Amino acid sequence: MTSEIAGITRANEGIQGISWNILGQTYVPKSHSDNSFSWHATLPPGTFVPPHIHPDQDEYIYMLEGKLDFLLGNSETQGTAGDTVRLAMGVPHGIFNKSDQTAKVLFWVSPSRRLYDLFWALHNMKEQKPEEVVALAAEYNIHFLPPPPA
User: Fold this and answer.
1) For residue 77, what is the domain's CATH number?
2) Domain of 38?
3) Which residues of the chain have pLDDT under 70?
4) What pLDDT is attached to residue 149?
5) Of 7, 19, 95, 134, which shows the fewest CB atoms inside 10 Å?
6) Sequence-separated (6 or more) residues with CB below 8 Å from residue 51
7) Which secondary-structure segment (H or E) carries 109?
8) C-alpha distances in Å from residue 39, one per residue of 57, 85, 100, 109, 145
9) 31: Cβ–Cβ under 8 A, 6 or more apart, which residues?
10) Given this model, what pLDDT does residue 91 score?
11) Handedness of CA 130, 133, 136, 142 (dihedral sign)
């Protein structure tokens, strides 16, 4: 894919009607080209994206509803509705919904690389076992970090 077709992706719909289940969250792709990939995400209470690194992508999150806790490098912080979270290329980050409310956000990455394909692969896994998710993500150049020492 080199460029996206002009048009409108309607509210509550993904491009081509796509909706993925990724780690208990719902991801709905909104746009996809070589240069940028965006998706709407619904993160129920208690769900999270473990700390990981995108070595060749900048990632951004625009908070629409709710509150999320973030690990950004070595710092912990929170984002709420209206905030934009910048997850710079090569900086470890994790996303956690520790609240009792569902969070809704718009994610985007630039450039797209193979993240769109990774989401298809994760969605199509029979069971998203942590060790298998980590191994698969590494094949797409997304690297999950080991858990902190107990």
Assistant:
1) 2.60.120.10
2) 15-144
3) 1-3, 148-150
4) 64
5) 7
6) 71, 92, 93, 94, 144, 145
7) strand 103-110
8) 15, 15, 23, 9, 23
9) 4, 9, 15, 37, 38, 108
10) 96
11) negative
